[in-house]
Amino acid sequence: MNTAGYIYVSSVNPSYTTTTAPVQSMTIDIQNTSGTTICTFQVISSGSPTTTPSSSCSLGTGTYYISIKVVPNLPVTSSSTETVTVNFGYNVISSVSVPVPT
Prior knowledge:
102 residues, mainly beta, 4-stranded antiparallel sheet, 3-stranded antiparallel sheet, 0% helix
């Protein structure tokens, strides 16, 4: 980050071809270069996207890493596919989310 601000998840859009969502839960962690988790976003819970926009997380200037943990619904089959699109927002002024233009 070149400018300190607040990151949040603005939308989560899963898409799958089976009757049951292949992903049971999905969590995104943002970590500093020391490996310390700064914030966690639960983006899928019980097979459904979570409410967005999420609460924000304060980030200072510097380098960050993103880790993604996915827990599948069992059993996992070769025909089970899911695409999850996660959009982030970043506000350099305040911790509130900014509405996406329509």
